[in-house]
Amino acid sequence: MTNFSWCRMGLIFVLMAVTRMVFAATSAENIEVGKAEIFMPQRNASATGSKMTIYNRSDKPLIIREVTGQRFKQIMLHATTYKSGQREMYPVEQITVAAHQKLALTPNTSHIMLMGFTRPLQRGEFVSLILHTNQGLVRVIARVVPMSVR
């Protein structure tokens, strides 16, 4: 290897270290996400839902204001209500998890809607999402699963 290659390799290691420090500084501590799943979309659908449980082990409320992911053109926070026996979904500005509590996000409650697939989802694959919160970024790996009827 030439000196130039060693310099380039050293620069890469420095950038990785800085990235790790920045990630640690911007990532939410005391926040965990469990059982994250994205539902296989129905045939010819351009959107799908998800479910996950968020554990807020911190002393302050966790406020989710945005979700991003490279596999989707648009991601929205939604809530579901029932009126006259009919399920109605509508967008919300944020989802809050109280301090020292957990919140299950499901299609029948608050949840994340994923729209405009950049490529088809495959059953069993893992998809990365990032929750943007008042406590920093929360990285989520969700598995693509079939929608089960319950």
TrEMBL record:
Gene3D superfamilies in alphabetical order: PCu(A)C copper chaperone
Keyword DNA-binding included in the entry's annotation: no
Pfam families from the UniProt entry: PCuAC
Swiss-Prot/TrEMBL keywords: Signal
Signal peptide (UniProt feature, chain positions): 1-24
Family annotation (InterPro entries): LpqE-like (IPR007410), Lxx211020-like (IPR058248), PCuAC_sf (IPR036182)
Parts of the chain that traverse the membrane: none
Record flagged with keyword Transmembrane: no
PANTHER family documented for this protein: BLR7088 PROTEIN, COPPER CHAPERONE PCU(A)C
Name used for this protein in its record: Copper chaperone PCu(A)C
Organism for this UniProt entry: Vibrio spartinae
